[in-house]
Design goal:
With 541 residues, this protein is an alpha+beta fold. 36% of the residues lie in helices and 17% in strands. The protein contains 18 helices and 17 strands. Strands 5, 6, 7, 8, 9, 14 and 15 form a seven-stranded antiparallel beta sheet that branches. Strands 3-4-17-16-10-11 form a six-stranded antiparallel beta sheet. A two-stranded parallel sheet has the order 1-2. Helix 6 crosses helix 7 and helix 13 crosses helix 15. It is globular, with a radius of gyration of 24 Å. Keywords: Hydrolase, Metal-binding, Protein phosphatase.
Length: 541
Amino acid sequence: MSSTVSCRILHCVKNEGVCLRGQHRLYSGCLRPNSSSSNVKWKRMKLLSSPLQNVLSRTNNSVFSVRKVFRHSSTEEELQFQLTPVQINRILRANEQSVKIPEFDGKNLNPVLKFESNQLPANSPNEDRRSAATCLQTKGMLFGVFDGHAGYVCAQAVSERLFYYIAVALMSQKNLEEIEFAMKHMKPRLPILQWYKPPNHYIYRKSASLYLDHLRVFWQELIDHDNEEGMGTGDALAYAFKRLDSDISLEAQVPLDSDIMRNMAIQVAFAGSTACVAHVDNIDLHVANSGDCRAILGVQEEDGSWSSLPLTRDHNALNPSELARVRSEHPKLEENTVVTGDRLLGLLVPLRAFGDVCFKWSKELQQSVLENGFDLETLDIYHYAPPNYLTPPYLNVDPELTYHKLRPQDKFLILASDGLWDMLSNDEAVRLVAEHLTGMHLEEPVAASERQVKLGHMHSLLLKRRARAVPSLDPNVATHLIRHSIGTSEYGEIEQAQLAAMMSLPEDLTRMYRDDITVTVVYFNSDLIKAHYKENNLRFL
């Protein structure tokens, strides 16, 4: 059966050349500047060990890249090779993270019990990033998922920098002045964040000084604003998103100290990343979203039933209000060209993102920057203006903000990139986490159509019911979600042949079937939340 599944996958790819599930971030094939030309830029790419080398060797197509990664050719014989369950588990669990949070951190009680996270790449290297940290000079924890496109460099930079911008915006005037005094007099400065680093984490050390310099300019401006208490959480999130995106754009335009930093800055700016960030402080949950990652709350009612509460909306063409917003920002003449084929200017799926200056800068600015001494071929950047590029900017990073007051029935928060949501609905994801949390596999009530079935159909129904009783294979709930997203049969059970076939796909085929998947699940301390309501005489609905 495994061989049959594998051969069917290969047959579909060879004859159809389509993505069966999920969406490509930018476009399905190689982009040609001239549709009448058959010339395609081919480059042999290889994954290098250091972050800097990775920056200089992007592997995925972008609006300005006319090339295709040259990888090994897939054959039917290759796809008949199947990974064993042990090998599958090793791959699925390679990027797991599980962190238990102390209830009391020395200053405040923490409503977060623990969080679990994992990633499964489809691109090579993975274009998704994730972050988690505690704000040390203020209160609260930050969790984020970042989905890169046109390479991973922008997602990497945003995952390193955004939390610092948020934390600084939240800080009081007094704390900001203390940090500035320490910097000015070269004294040890107060730590801003406590990071929870996932496996295989790395940072752009060569750009650390540049990032710190611009962060310092940011907090100096905040000091000048003379805001004694710091910003409110919602304002801080929105301001941090927009300020970081502005800095990314600026760094690509101004002279920098070294060619390494200039090359990195230009690549970050021309790549892109969506972002979904949650800030949890006592019972206050704020979510800032830009793009098509999602934040979904798992809610358990008094009768034990579970439901999903979306805290974000996808910023893509499938969201009517978002589509209307984008079209309203441009002349009536462009109404039919701003979004075509459910993509911005026919190219980009998310309608909000960091970076992507090719959708923000004027044509003249793009040309001026790209011709300013950069080796564009080495950087894999090829100047190509999107069609109907008349009234930029077409893209912004302005986050959509959601505030939610946590209640005792709010048990967990799922943050995930769209690679998960391409495969699972909100309700399916919440059900899977709830089953993992309670150790009970939830039975759906028998539908009216199932109450009178012929004997021939009863076997299928019993298989579906039996699937619900299979215990979880994974201690980490994020792995549990990822496994089910790619390996679940129509009966709701893990189909080993399907899972093995999906996990055994060569690199040049994997992205045709799914996207990178990143999941973080945050568990809340319901007892602590309930005690807070009781102590403050609050009612929860």
